């Protein structure tokens, strides 16, 4: 698969050094650049075109949310996958990061193995959320009414695809969706791909946000 390249963006040099040591202990991961602020993160990511940017939230000049939007937000051509890492698990950061285009969100106190796995998952084009993140998303939509309703997009989905989207929004993995709907894993993967394609979504994170924005699922439906 080749070497997985990473740009680390964090305003604390010691934190960047720690992340670099953890990641470069893996034989197939290379940190190609480090940034101390959001503006530098965007510039270095555009220069090196890494497989993933490890992005802090609170940084000078440009925060991690704005930097994420510049690299992976709506309308960005050839987006760079961003994994948000922060000590702050407040709703505003979670929701802001995901709306800005982040493909993953983890807290900085995760075990080293979880960090490495998260980098691999997001770099491979999948999405990753810390266990509590989906619940925070739901609380966010409890406080704010759904916006930007797109009934014409929802209408393109078959009943089965809509079921799959709702289960994705509840946080189920492909294997769990297969069990719930009595389908094969390959069939579920195909349905997920079609849902993302029809709705113009990049990954499961965007699918979760879309489902709650459109009111397809509600906080009470989460288990």
Automatic annotation (TrEMBL):
GO molecular function per UniProt: DNA binding
Matching InterPro entries: CheY-like_superfamily, NreC/VraR/RcsB-like_REC, Sig_transdc_resp-reg_C-effctor, Sig_transdc_resp-reg_receiver, Tscrpt_reg_LuxR_C, WalR-like
Residues annotated as domain HTH luxR-type: 150-215
Entry-linked PROSITE patterns: HTH_LUXR_1, HTH_LUXR_2, RESPONSE_REGULATORY
Keyword DNA-binding part of the UniProt annotation: yes
CDD domains per the UniProt record, alphabetical: LuxR_C_like, REC_NarL-like
Example of a GO biological process term: phosphorelay signal transduction system
Coiled coil: none
Lineage: superkingdom: Bacteria
Domain Response regulatory: from-to ranges: 5-123
Keyword annotations from UniProtKB, A to Z: DNA-binding, Phosphoprotein, Transcription, Transcription regulation
Residues found modified as 4-aspartylphosphate: 56
Protein name, per record: DNA-binding response regulator, NarL/FixJ family, contains REC and HTH domains
Organism of derivation: Actinokineospora iranica
